[in-house]
């Protein structure tokens, strides 16, 4: 409710009573700021971007699954979201994140996002839907890009979901076309994307 009030204050709209929640699995969506207009309350939020710690893993798995189930609902059906979100478990996520650079975002001492890079490949950027659209993904991604530049990497690649395509385009990536990935035998459309760092 505080996040909604701050957004309304900064967008100079009157505070409306909260609508009753439809269900815990499908919270009422908030209007998204246009990509060219970052949400002004992001500067006020107590974000902390820090390296991954072993105690974060259980929370990261929850962020991963909630981001897919809620944030990707407009682009992928339930069967696709189930296959994708179950594609990682606690042990496999530890294995994936053990290589490369992983950073997490905390907001008021709660883990709300994470991002992972292996050399020149942006492997994951996930933000919990309750903390989306306030600049957390941008901060996470920028940390990974800065690290890549320090390492002398001259371009980054990623496979962006249909949900993440616009975010990566805003970050300067160009789509090289759509392709089909597969999770548990279920096809998932995504974009192969690339960004020059020179």
Structure overview:
The protein is of the alpha+beta class. The chain has one domain (about 50-195): Aminopeptidase. It contains 6 helices and 7 strands. The protein has helices at about 1-10, 55-70, 80-85, 90-95, 135-150, 165-170, and strands at about 45-50, 100-105, 110-120, 120-125, 155-160, 175-185, 185-195. It has a 7-stranded mixed beta sheet with strand order 1-2-3-4-5-7-6. Helix 2 packs antiparallel against helix 3.
Low-pLDDT residue spans = 1-43
Total number of distinct structural domains? 1
Beta-strand share of residues: 25-35%
Q: Mind telling me the CATH class? A: Alpha Beta
Could you state the CATH homologous superfamily?
A: Gcn5-related N-acetyltransferase (GNAT)
Q: Main sheet? A: 7 strands, mixed
Q: What is the overall number of helices?
A: 6
CATH architecture tag? 3-Layer(aba) Sandwich
Oligomer: single chain
Kindly name the structural category. Answer: alpha+beta
Overall geometry:
globular
- The percentage helix is 25-40%
Q: Helix and strand succession?
A: HEHHHEEEHEHEE
Q: What distance separates the N and C termini?
A: 42 Å
Q: Roughly what is the average pLDDT, rounded to an integer?
A: 82
In which order are the strands of the major sheet placed?
A: 1-2-3-4-5-7-6
């Amino acid at each position: 409710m505080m996040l909604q009030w701050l957004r309304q204050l900064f967008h100079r709209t009157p505070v409306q009573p909260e609508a009753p929640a439809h269900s815990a699995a499908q919270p009422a969506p908030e209007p998204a700021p246009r990509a060219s207009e970052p949400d002004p309350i992001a500067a006020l939020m107590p974000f902390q971007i820090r390296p991954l710690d072993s105690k974060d893993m259980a929370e990261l798995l929850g962020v991963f699954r909630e981001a897919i189930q809620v944030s990707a609902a407009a682009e992928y059906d339930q069967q696709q979201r189930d296959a994708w979100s179950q594609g990682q478990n606690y042990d496999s996520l530890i294995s994936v994140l053990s290589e490369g650079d992983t950073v997490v975002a905390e907001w008021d001492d709660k883990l709300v996002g994470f991002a992972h890079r292996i050399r020149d490949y942006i492997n994951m950027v996930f933000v919990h839907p309750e903390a989306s659209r306030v600049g957390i993904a941008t901060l996470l991604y920028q940390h990974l890009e800065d690290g890549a530049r320090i390492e002398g990497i001259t371009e980054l690649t990623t496979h962006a979901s249909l949900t993440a395509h616009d975010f990566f385009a805003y970050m300067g990536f160009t789509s090289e076309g759509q392709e089909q990935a597969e999770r548990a035998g279920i096809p998932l459309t995504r974009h192969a994307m690339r960004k020059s760092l020179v």
